[in-house]
Every structure is written in C-alpha cells, then in structure tokens.
Amino acid sequence: MTKIKINDIDVTSAEKEGHDSALILTRANAIIIRNQSDYEQVIQFEKMAKERYKEIDIERKKITMPIDEAKKNVMNLFRPALENYESAYKKARVLLLQYENEQERKRREAEAKLQAEAEKKRIEAMRKAEEARAAGKENIAEKYEAKAENVPVPVVAPTFERPKGFVSRTLWKYEILDESLIPRAYLMPSDEKLRKQATATHDSIPIPGIRFYCVEV
Questions:
Q1: What pLDDT was estimated at residue 165?
Q2: Burial class (CB in 10 A: 0-12, 13-18, 19+), 164
Q3: How far apart (Å, rounded) are the C-alpha atoms in residues 10 and 59?
Q4: 61-75, pLDDT tens digit by residue?
Q5: How many structural domains does the chain have?
C-alpha cells in the first residue's frame, strides 16, 4: 500500500498572501478610469494581479498535487472491492424486486378473479330480488337484496413479507413518443444549437424570441 507523506505547510506565507491579496482587491474596487493614462495603469495592474494569481496557484498545487495523487491511489486501491460489492447488492436487490413484482401481479390477478365471482353473485341476487318483486313477493325480494348487499369483497393478502430495513421507492420516468405533440411549456431551447448559431452567423439571421449579442472577454 502506498504510504502518504505530506510536508509541513507554510501557513505564515499563505496568510501573508491572503492579507496582500485583500489589499489588491481593495485597490481594484476603487479603480476609476478617467483618461488614457489611467487606462494604461489599469492594464499594468490587471497584468500584475493575474501574474500573482498564477504564482500563488503554482505554490498551492505544490501542496495539493501530492495529496490529490495520494487520494487517487487510495481510490484505485479500494475501487475493485467497492465496485464488486456494489454490483452484488444491486443485482440481489433487482432480483428481490422482480420477485415482489411477480408475486404482486399474481395476487392482483387472484383478487380480481375472486372479486369478479363475488360481483356475479351480487348481480344474481339482485336479479332474483327483481323477479320476486315483480311477482309480488316483497319479503323474498328484500331477502335477496340483503344478500346482495352482504356479498363480501374478497381481498387477497400478499404472499411475502419484507424484512425490517428493506425499503424501495417508486420511480416515475418518461419517454418521448411524438415530440411534435409536446406542449410548449415542456419544451426547452437547445443551448448548444443557439450558441453555434451565434458563433457562426452572429446576428445576421434573426430567430423569433431570440436576441443575439456579443461581449468582449
């Protein structure tokens, strides 16, 4: 296993640079360009600040690069085990959910079948009640109506029980069947296409609802 060794960090130097940079930022916030001379001075100021930024960044990387390399080595060391275990528990969970879904499908089918049979009994009882009432047998009609009302609605219990700690969630997704039918509120302009259009044609080809403009960078 790769040993990690980090040299002491010069905190004093870093703190001094933080103080000096704050003064530079204060100067930047106070800049006012009134004439060509000011303009040229600010160019030199911008150059100085940029150079100091690069120098400080180099010093930072002297410290962080070994740390980043050490982290990379640690990640590579543990990656095979993590990936294997992740694939294993994800595969097991997929199989569990497939089993649950299949059992639930069978339960719903069995329940629907029993409920259909119960509905037939209810309809038959109501039919006999109507026949009895038509024949003037009110008492018998009421008995059949009561029987129809008391036909139980079958409910089939699940055939599996989840152990404590095993949970899942329903994830809704979508697929586009016909892009031309999508309401405008759900459409998003293509950032990539518009950027390419702006670069290639500038503002020579107008597009309704779009303003092309340029900035100096």
A1: 77
A2: exposed
A3: 10
A4: 988 999 999 999 999
A5: 1
Query: Can you give the residue range of the structural domain that contains 45?
Result: 11-201
Residue 83 lies in a domain: yes
Q: What is the mean pLDDT of each run of 10 residues along the chain (217 residues)?
A: 52 87 95 96 96 94 91 96 95 91 93 94 93 92 92 89 78 84 86 91 89 82
Q: What is the pTM of this model?
A: 0.54
Task: Note the Cα 183 to chain centre separation in Å.
Answer: 23
Return the number of other C-beta atoms located less than 10 Å from residue 151's C-beta. Answer: 17
Determine the Cα–Cα distance for residues 96 and 153; give it in Å rounded to an integer.
30
213 domain residue, yes or no: no
CA separation for the pair 48, 24 (Å, rounded) = 10
- Position of tokens 């024949």? 135
Q: Is 183 left (phi over 0), alpha (psi -120 to 50) or beta?
A: beta
Q: Among 155, 154, 144, which residue's Cα sits nearest to residue 122?
A: 144
Q: Is residue 102 part of a domain?
A: yes
Task: Give the integer Cα–Cα distance in Å for 62 and 84.
Answer: 35
| Token pair belonging to 58 | 């180099």
